[in-house]
Amino acid sequence: MSAHTAAPGAGPGTGAPGATAADPRRWLILAVVAAAQLMVVLDLTVMNLALPSAQHALKFTTTDRQWVVTAYALSFGSLLLFSGRLADLIGRKTTFLTGLVGFAAASAVGGASDSFSMLVTARASQGLFGALLAPSALSLLATTFKDPKERAKAFGVYGAVAAAGGGLGLLLGGALTTYLSWRWCMYINLVFAAIAIVGGVLLVGRQQRTPGGRLDVPGVVAVSGGMFCLVYGLSNAASHTWRTPSAWGFLTAGVALLIVFAVWQSRAAQPLLPPRVVLDRNRAGAYLTVLISGAATFGVFLFLVYYMQVTLGYSAITSGLAMLPMVALSGTMATVGNTKLMPRVGPKPMVIAGMLLNAAAMVWLTRIDAHSGYASALLGPLMVTGAGMGLIFGMVAATGTFGVAPHDAGVASASINTGQQLGGSIGTALLNTIAASATTGYLADHLHGRPTPQLLQLAAVHSYTTVFWWCAGIFATGAVVCGALLRRGPLTRPVDIPVRQPSQHAVAVRS
């Protein structure tokens, strides 16, 4: 592998700034990519608030309800790396537009569902096309912006969307469910998709393909099967127990398949995930950061909403509005972090500071009780969490795609999304289990006769605070581990460029 040094923040496959003419439509392309990314991020949370209404309308059981979420997670998580490499092989514009059209169609079917099976099929299809769309969108951004300063601004906007999208999803889901219908939590995707499709067709030019590239079929089978088993096993652990064969059996199979995948990638002629992408310390640190933060952030988005709605009696729209300070600060800090901090200090201090801020916010949240006020107990931690999440997400997209050659941009982008999806699945299983155990333990210690509503409420609050303590520990661990992995200073690592094989004509001349 040969390399040349890139300037701080330089785009993939670029040398000095200005080496390649800037695309005059690049800022409009950023708006298109941001709209597509917002749609994907919103969909991860917007349906959570619509599930009770959908369950009532379609009359499916609480046990079946998890499959509305799991069906999406299974197809999305298992196909990300495959889709990222596919974008590199056949062109990012093609996969980007295909993902948008497919995601919109699946959303329309989901909104019109008249049965549980129809809704679950639509959600699985959303995950499939979302897996095609997400890495294509990020890799388009990584290959469009070449100038370091412009690249920082672009990734700042992308990071703001990624950081704030989950909170906006809660707000939008609450508003749509309260004032319209749960079906609009699916139909709203058509608006974002239409904007992005028109913009993609008109603005995005023909994208470079990997010349002579082939799809690593054994790698696709191993990693897709491994991710499917992991997500499915974790979903079963969250809804049942870790001792269930459908949990530990699939988890064991998933780990085994991923080990096979890792070994195969070091031997394959054209690997699905080239080792050069993940062996760089900064990129590996970014992927690990998004996995760890994804697992712990789940505690904020789920259990804090449970606390506000179940314990404090907030409506769906009120709990969404309560998240606005976090949304605003996360978006602001992501932009500021990428444009002001990253060029000066690099990703390492941003990750450490972001993780520690989130850990402090989680410790602060452990002070809640059954009658806490919003201003006194929730506003401060939410603002601190927003700042921490902004710093983290502001650096992940830029660092995770930094220095990769254009033909690896898709799979590098997919690695970020894979880390986030796997982290969320781990967080779901782990924190749900911890919450259930904390509730059971509290009732066993305090129960005398039949449980009263007050005791049940106290047990629920105890489970939430226990989860927040665990989230604090996860964030603190992330600060140490990810901080140690990331290099000091701004991003100035070499760009990955494959060694060019001599042509047959050149070989003949030499011989």
How does this structure look, described?
It is a multi-pass membrane protein. The chain has 511 residues and is mainly α. The protein has two domains: 402 residues, MFS general substrate transporter like domains (Growth Hormone, Chain: A, Up-down Bundle), CATH 1.20.1250.20; 56 residues. Helices cover 77% and strands 0% of the residues. The chain has 17 helices and no strands. Helix 1 packs antiparallel against helix 2, helix 1 packs antiparallel against helix 4 and helix 4 crosses helix 15. The two termini are 24 Å apart.
Which quaternary structure do these chains form?
A: single chain
Question: How many structurally independent domains?
Answer: 2
Q: At CATH's second level, what is the architecture of the largest domain? A: Up-down Bundle
CATH names the topology of the largest domain as Growth Hormone, Chain: A
In one word, what is the shape? globular
What structural category arises from helix and sheet content? mainly alpha
Helix share bin: over 70%
The CATH class label of the largest domain is: Mainly Alpha
Task: From the alpha carbons, calculate the radius of gyration and give it in angstroms.
Answer: 23 Å
Average pLDDT number = 81
> How would you sum up the major sheet?
none
Order of helices and strands: HHHHHHHHHHHHHHHHH
Strand content: under 5%
Uncertain segments of ≥5 residues (pLDDT<50)? Answer: 1-19, 497-511
CATH superfamily of the largest domain: MFS general substrate transporter like domains
How many alpha or pi helices? 17
Distance from first to last alpha carbon: 24 Å
GO cellular component, one term: plasma membrane
Transmembrane segments: 27-47, 67-87, 94-112, 124-143, 155-180, 186-205, 217-235, 247-264, 285-308, 314-337, 349-366, 378-405, 426-444, 464-486
Keywords: Cell membrane, Membrane, Transmembrane, Transmembrane helix, Transport
Subcellular location: Cell membrane
